[in-house]
Amino acid sequence: MYFKITAFVLFILHLTGCHVQNKNLMGQGEKLLVIGRHANILEKITAMLNEQGYLATGKQWNEEAIAAFKKEHFDAVIIGGGVDNESRELFHIEFPKLNPQVKIINAHPQTVLADLRLAFDH
Predict the structure, then answer these.
(1) Tens-place pLDDT, residues 24-67
(2) What is the 3-state secondary structure (H, E, C) of 63-114?
(3) N or C: which end of the chain has fewer CB within 10 A?
(4) What is the pTM (predicted TM-score) of this model?
């Protein structure tokens, strides 16, 4: 757990110093639902994604995430490393029922921007 939090924090610090290098990984206004269990990390990841050209909304708990997904259209869902397997399975089943085109990405701090780029074929 400590390692995951540390990895996320180091990733954020790395990205804030590398905006020019990551220009080719920037979004084009895609709407993202980011689900993470640690509020401070969720806030930082969501802010970083917004700075990178995505429209990211963060939710910490399953009920919040499902309610947001039902209310708004999201192009992709990013599931953070701290989310348990049972919740992941729920999201992988429920979200495509509501939006068959949604892209679901199991996030890894080092590759989240590259994963988004591949998902949206930028």
Answers:
(1) 556 788 999 999 999 998 999 999 999 999 999 999 999 999 99
(2) HHHHHHHHHCCCCEEEECCCCCHHHHHHHHHHHHHHCCCCEEEECCCCCHHH
(3) N
(4) 0.78
- Token pair recorded at residue 2: 């400590």
Q: How many angstroms separate the CA atoms of 70 and 85, rounded? A: 21
Choose among 35, 42, 44: nearest CA to 78.
35
Q: What is the structure's pLDDT at 112? A: 83
Name all domains of the chain by residue range, CATH numbers in brackets: 2-120 (3.40.50.2300)
The Cα 68–Cα 66 span in angstroms is 5
What is the reported pLDDT for 20?
40
Residue range 7-20, pLDDT digits in tens: 565 555 555 554 44
d(CA 6, CA 106): 18
